[in-house]
């Protein structure tokens, strides 16, 4: 089948100089060192991650979309850009600079490149204001990290931010970051392989088990990255715990699985069996194509996992590859 393809989970990193980054924090704010088509995200004088020009060059990005047969790609910040641990006096102008740079990238092909804003989530009032400003400027939604220090999505302030986004019609992508596990996750990319899916699971369960979904309006559009982490596979365990332990039911009046209709996930699970389970648990109307491009852990042939899946109907594929994203982001 030939289907419209919209990728809702991809990253950018703008050409930020070391001097611009130093205004947020000289050692901890990221900037981009480039050498032709290759580059390095730097933290102060230390290399953080090798990258290539699809990440920052909008013309190369469009070439990449063409190579991948993608109609539209939604780009969001690389999480190292969040700056949640910095004072708001510096973090707000930083977020605004990142958001303005994102729009400059998208301006090369505004029909095909869409961008999500970042907000200084350590200050809820400023975060709400920046989310609204970004919406007015042309961002199609906001990406947030799944936590701010020790505060998860059930924190009263973060819940206020979610209410604001629901009221203003701002869709949200929740991305895991600042991964748990510390030194135990030091090797073999364990932060990505163990901590990231656990962070996402924690984000989703924070909203379900705290009863936040009971208070948040059904109009809230919220999507979790990486297929929702471990959520689909672990849902039986959560329901079982809710049935048998009163401390799990304490703040959550309904069976956890009854809340799957309140959020979306992307399709970045990299295995047809996992995708089958994900679609069975969430429903084809709650999964959106997401690649995590252009990083090496992203889907290299974007959309192949969905479009070549033997167990999904053409109608499912069409919803996952484009229909759901059109409705979710209004694009
Ligand atoms: Zn990502």
How would you portray this structure in words?
Helix content is 41%, strand content 16%. With 331 residues, the chain is α/β, with parallel strands linked by helices. The chain has a single domain, classed as Metal-dependent hydrolases (TIM Barrel). The chain is globular, with a radius of gyration of 19 Å. The chain starts with 5 loop residues before the first strand and ends with a helix. The model has no long low-confidence stretch (mean pLDDT 97). Bound molecules: zinc ion. Zinc ion (ZN) is lined by residues 9, 11, 175, 225, 292. GO terms for molecular function: aminocarboxymuconate-semialdehyde decarboxylase activity; hydrolase activity; metal ion binding. Its EC number is 4.1.1.45.
Total helices: the number is 12
Total count of strands: 11
* Biggest pleated-sheet summary: 8 strands, parallel
Order of helices and strands: EHEEEHEHEHEHEHHEHHEHEHH
Low-pLDDT residue intervals, each spanning 5 or more residues: none
Lateral strand order in the biggest sheet: 1-5-6-7-8-9-10-11
N- to C-terminal distance: 22 Å
- Bound ligands: zinc ion
Work out the helicity level: 40-55%
The H-level CATH homologous superfamily, spelled out, is Metal-dependent hydrolases
CATH class: Alpha Beta
Average predicted confidence as pLDDT: 97
Tally of structural domains: 1
Please state roughly what percent of the residues sit in beta strands, choosing from under 5%, 5-15%, 15-25%, 25-35%, 35-45% or over 45%.
Answer: 15-25%
Shape: globular
What would you say the CATH architecture is? Alpha-Beta Barrel
Per the CATH scheme, the topology name is: TIM Barrel
Organism: Zestomonas carbonaria
Keywords: Decarboxylase, Lyase, Metal-binding, Zinc
Domain Amidohydrolase-related: 6-331
Pfam families: Amidohydro_2 (PF04909)
């Amino acid at each position: 089948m030939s289907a419209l393809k919209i990728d809702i989970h991809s990253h950018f990193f703008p050409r930020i100089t070391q001097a611009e980054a130093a205004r947020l924090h000289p050692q901890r704010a990221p900037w981009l060192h480039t050498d032709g088509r290759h580059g390095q995200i730097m933290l102060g004088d230390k290399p953080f991650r090798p990258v290539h020009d699809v990440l920052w060059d909008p013309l190369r990005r469009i070439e990449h979309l063409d190579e991948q047969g993608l109609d539209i790609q939604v780009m969001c910040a690389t999480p190292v850009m969040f700056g949640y641990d910095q004072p708001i006096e510096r973090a707000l102008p930083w977020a605004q600079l990142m958001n303005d740079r994102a729009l400059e990238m998208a301006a090369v092909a505004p029909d095909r490149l869409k961008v999500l804003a970042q907000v200084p989530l350590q200050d809820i009032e400023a975060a709400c204001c920046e989310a609204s400003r970004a919406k007015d400027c042309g961002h199609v939604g906001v990406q947030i990290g799944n936590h701010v220090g020790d505060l998860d999505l059930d924190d009263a302030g973060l819940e206020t931010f979610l209410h604001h986004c629901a009221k203003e019609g701002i869709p949200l992508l929740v991305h895991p970051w600042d991964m748990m596990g510390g030194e135990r996750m030091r090797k073999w990319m364990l932060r990505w392989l163990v901590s990231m899916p656990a962070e996402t699971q924690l984000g989703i369960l924070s909203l379900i088990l705290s009863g936040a979904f009971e208070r948040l309006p059904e109009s809230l559009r919220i999507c979790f990255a990486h297929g929702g982490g471990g959520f689909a596979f672990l849902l039986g365990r959560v329901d079982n715990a809710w049935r048998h332990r009163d401390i799990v039911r304490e703040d959550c009046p309904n069976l956890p699985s009854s809340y799957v209709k309140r959020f979306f996930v992307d399709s970045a699970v990299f295995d047809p069996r996992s995708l089958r389970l994900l679609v069975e648990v969430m429903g084809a109307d709650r999964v959106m194509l997401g690649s995590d491009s252009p990083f090496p852990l992203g889907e290299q042939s974007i959309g192949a996992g969905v479009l070549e899946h033997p167990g999904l109907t053409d109608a499912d594929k069409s919803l996952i590859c484009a229909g759901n994203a059109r409705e979710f982001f209004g694009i």
